[in-house]
Structure formats: structure tokens, C-alpha cells
């Protein structure tokens, strides 16, 4: 049975991929994004182009009628998540069944430069979403949390039952706040909320501020690759297709769950050392990186490692993409998109 689904952050990396698969499955997608300039808006507009949204339509403010080549099953709206007048109006116009909130001010390091953007989007914006879900009887909200909330925990793999009271970046603090806010609303108003703690997502159409993109770009252009903490870092790199699979499984599940509030890690559960990751990119490109060893950056964590047993148990989540396979797919897309 098809649903009408609001996907916030639809021009973003994960939101674009989620929207695309939902459309392919026959659902109606209301895509929302403010198309800010945190990174190149041309990449965001190109993603929307893949969803059939003309870039001339995508830049219109509060456009409730910009349908795509998918017909009325894809409607795009340019809007700030924190807009307390426009967002409720959007919910009034469209009868939304479930919400997938992937919009947020992303990035750990940028939160040191522009903390206000995180308060606006990640806190006020998330509250606005919760209020709209409450007032318009939305049955389920699936939202993006982050592995960054685990901070510099030495207890690996990271488990959902771990205490996460010591975030080391404002970005992480806002994601922890989202989880607490969702808990309050599920408790008070009875609608289902599912928080997904994403672990270092990468793949085609990825964000230019992420390691995969930065390393590939630097190596191709014969520029130094900045290797933080002298390479003594590891990440649970998770391919975009595995992330989308987990998001859609939780989003479209129709079982009658007694627990209205849930949190899940969603990762590959196979951490990779940073230097090994760079080596795999070198192999995919057929080119050696110029490495510039750097100290640890403020707000960064030394390691991430997801225990995904709970998501496997409840939703049969099975990540299947090896890092070398995912890197090859990203490099192929990068070369084609940037004509390298």
C-alpha cells in the first residue's frame, strides 16, 4: 500500500537516495530542503534533477506545486525546517502518513564556526517537526541521529544501551537532544519515533565535506590528503545502499509495536583504519596519495564501531557492502559527475 511520506533534507546525500527508492517503490514523496550553501548547491540541485525536479523550480521559496517527472508522486518544497508558519501549512496541504526527518545542519567541525546554524535547524527545526507530527496525527517519525553522540567512548562496539552523556561537539549534543525530545513526544502523544544513529555514510552523490569525497578530490588533483591524528583513527564506514535499506525498513514497517520510542545503531559493524581506507581509495584511483599528517581535530572522535544486533533482531538489517566495493562505486560516480 503506497504512503505519502515527507522526506526532509531531500536534496541532501541520504535524503536524496531515500526519496529515490521510495519513488521507485510507488510511494508519494513530499521532499523538503532549504538548499543552503554549507556545500556546493549545484550538487544538491543535481540530486534533485535525478528526482525529476527542475532546478528552476527547486530554488522557488515555499513552492507547494513543483512536481517532477515522477508526476504528482514527487513534490519538492524549498523551506527552512524551523519555519513555524510554513511547515504547519505544508502538513495542512498534504495528508502525510509518515515523516523521515533527515534534514539537519551537518558536520562536526563546522559546529565550531557557526553554532547558531545547529540550534536553528537541529533543535528548533526538530521541535517544529515534532509539533507538526503531533498536531496532524502522523503515525510515525523516523529521524537521523548520529554515531557522534558516543563521544570518545572506549567501550566498543558502541551499543544503544551505552551512556551517551558526554558529547564532544555541539553537533553531537544536538543529536542527543533530538533523541530526548523524541522520547518526550512519544511518551506524551503516543506516536512512534525511531532514531537511527548513522555511522559514517559514504557512496555516490556523497557530501563534499566527508572523508571519501575529500580524499578522492585531493588525490585526483595532486593535492595533499590531510590525515588527522597521524592516521590513528578508525571509522565504521557504511555504504549508502545499506543505510537506505535500514531507513526504509523502519519507515515502512506496519507492525503494531508496543514500544513507541526506539533507537538503533545503523552501520557496517566493520571498522576500518583511516590509512587502510586511503589505501583502498588509492587502489580504486590507480594513484598514490600525498599524505600530510595532522593532529587530532577538535570535536573529532578517535573511533566509531556500531553494534547493530538490535536492528538485525527487530528489522533483519543486513549490511552487505564491503568497503572496497563501496569505494569503487563512489570513484566511478565521481569521475563521471566531475568529468575526471
From TrEMBL:
Residues 5-267 form the NAD-dependent epimerase/dehydratase domain. The keyword NAD applies. The keyword NAD applies. Keywords: NAD. Pfam families: Epimerase (PF01370). This is NAD-dependent epimerase. The lineage of its organism: Bacteria, Pseudomonadati, Bacteroidota, Flavobacteriia, Flavobacteriales. It comes from the Bacteria.
